[in-house]
Structures are given as C-alpha cells and as structure tokens.
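Please describe what follows:
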Amino acid sequence: MLRYAPMFLKLLLTALVIAGALLTLRMRRQKQYTASAPLLNASPDRRPMVKFLAAGVVALMLAGAALYLYHQWSDAYQVVTVRVIDTRSDRTTSYQVYKGDIDGRTFVTTDGRTVSLAEVERLEVGAQ
C-alpha cells in the first residue's frame, strides 16, 4: 500500500491548493461585498443558478477522479501470469503476480517472493 503514497500526497497537495484558492477568493469577495453592497444585490436571481452549476462541476470532477482512482486500483490488483525466460538455456519459469507489483526488471509474487531478472532473462506478462 505504500507504493500509492506519492499519488495520495499529490492529490492531497492539489486539494490543499484548491482550498487555499477558495479561501483567498472568499476573503476577497467579503472585502468587495462590504465595499460595493448595492452592486451585488442588483441580480440576486442568478446567484443560486451559478452556485448550482459550480457545485455540479465540482461534483462531476470528484466523481471523475474517484472513477479514475478506482480504475487504477483495480488494475493494479489484477493477477497476471509472468513468464521469465532465460535466453541462454530457453528455460521458462511462471509466476503469479499482481500487475501493480511489476516494477521494471523486478516483481513481487502473490506469495511474497521478490524476483529480480538478470540481464540474460526476458519477462513476458500475460493474462491469467
């Protein structure tokens, strides 16, 4: 689960930046509201519609992000068959591996063994 920590931190940082921007805009709006209160009351009919549209856009973005994260998570936990082929002797060894545990020339099997490939070995990933 630690391999997803950098992605989570990126999402957290993005959320903090958005929250900071919203807070800054709210502070500016309060200053403008006190300075120009008659101008803001000119069209009160449009404010609920704009708020509804903004909330809809935010909800759509959150749903899209959640769908993307679920897809990445489910794809990483898909079990695949990894075949390691020694090019010198044509000997083949098969392993069951979670797709997210393949990292270049190293992978961790479903039973916890870490396998690193030599320069003369080739890796083939296939569906289970």
Q: What stands out?
A: The chain has three helices and five strands. The longest strand covers residues 92-103.
